[in-house]
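Chapter summary example.
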Amino acid sequence: MGVIVTTTRKNQEKLQNHAQALAQEFHISFIQREKTSLPYLTATYEAPVLVVGTTKLTLHFPGQEDDPFFFHPSMAELRIKALARGENDRMVEACSLQAGDTFIDATMGLGSDSLVASYVVGKTGRVYGIESHPVVAYLVAEGMKQLALTHATLHDELSRVAVNAGDHYEWLVTMEEDSADVIYFDPMFQKEVQGSSSIGPLRAFANTEEVSAATVEEACRVAKRRVVLKDHRSSDRFEVLGFTRLLRKHAHIHYGVIDLKKG
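The structure predicted for these 263 residues follows.
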């Protein structure tokens, strides 16, 4: 799906250079905002609109212009608070995450799992997120950077996440063997989960390519301890790609693991 970029109606001249630089970086069209409305722009260009504002970037989809996407901690903040109270987190348990770990979120999306992982691995750990869509990666990276300036509670967690735009296979093949502890995949589900709407219109940007056997093989080369897959319980990816399911009764979401136990 194509994207156009513009500015807010306020401070148009001040923000124009930033918007034009993004247009050049992402090879998309810059549209002078003037007095035009967002519904007019999305309808005219039949595309989402990336709006450069003074304090944040927002992405507006056709028909949902008043409900834009911008980075926010979402459920990650609640999950981190629960962990701080000593409660369990299914993703953390599936990944067997520990302080000091290097964690790679190979299908980063909105970054919630990366943020939770950042809390668990702590100051001595590292978190890398890989997002295939460059505009989404930029929105998340910039959103984390801006929020870190004002969010005292999550400042450290936000600052530790390194966001990378690109294909996860191409990224993994450049990494040294045993250079991460855990590699995590949360691809777009083959079957949508009812009530799971946090990704919303960003589904239009989702990478629908299957996680390949070659990618999992590379992940097993790079990871020292565990490779993890999150998917719908009805998915056959676990069996096809060689993951062992961590079964949980009545759960719509399952996790699968490949334990490497190197060394």
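To summarize the output: DSSP finds ten helices and twelve strands in the chain.
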